[in-house]
Design brief:
153 residues; alpha+beta
Length: 153
């Protein structure tokens, strides 16, 4: 399971970051590195779930019951447009039933994800991080990681 999750995480992070990050940063997004990151996050209270089709992992999402956060929602490139992302997001939100208003973050450049989240009842709740090439050596272009909060539909 960890191998599938790490592969999907690496693919997803690369896809999201390729337009905004430097090649040097993109080179670090290997399945091995991502596996270590996932395992560290698991030790800090995160749980990760895979969506599979015909025994192939094609979607993943992480939830943290301590904080009410959702993260690492990725759908494999070949599986996009099939509703897996919305299923995974709904699944994750329901896993956090103890949090009336769970949160997640997304790059403001990820317009496809932002549109999905808005349709599903998520609303802006601030800026979690700013990536500015003038101050961040991993940033190729300026962008923001916006925080969204579930407000219901």
């Amino acid at each position: 399971q960890w191998t599938m999750a790490a592969r999907l995480f690496a693919e997803g992070r690369y896809t999201v970051c390729k337009a905004v990050c430097t090649p040097l940063y993109l080179d670090t997004l290997t399945p091995e590195h991502c596996r270590e990151e996932l395992q560290t996050e698991r030790q800090n209270g995160w749980a990760f779930y895979l969506h599979t089709t015909k025994k192939e992992a094609d979607g993943m999402v992480g939830v943290c019951h301590k904080t009410g956060e959702i993260s690492h929602l990725f759908v494999a490139e070949l599986s996009r447009g099939k509703g897996i992302g919305s299923k995974m997001l709904d699944f994750a939100r329901k896993k956090l039933a103890e949090h009336a208003h769970p949160t997640l973050t997304v790059l403001d450049t990820n317009t496809r994800a932002l549109a999905l989240y808005r349709r599903m009842g998520w609303r802006p709740a601030g800026v979690a991080a700013v990536y500015d090439p003038a101050a961040d050596p991993t940033a190729a272009v300026y962008c923001q990681e916006v925080k969204l909060r579930y407000e219901g539909q």
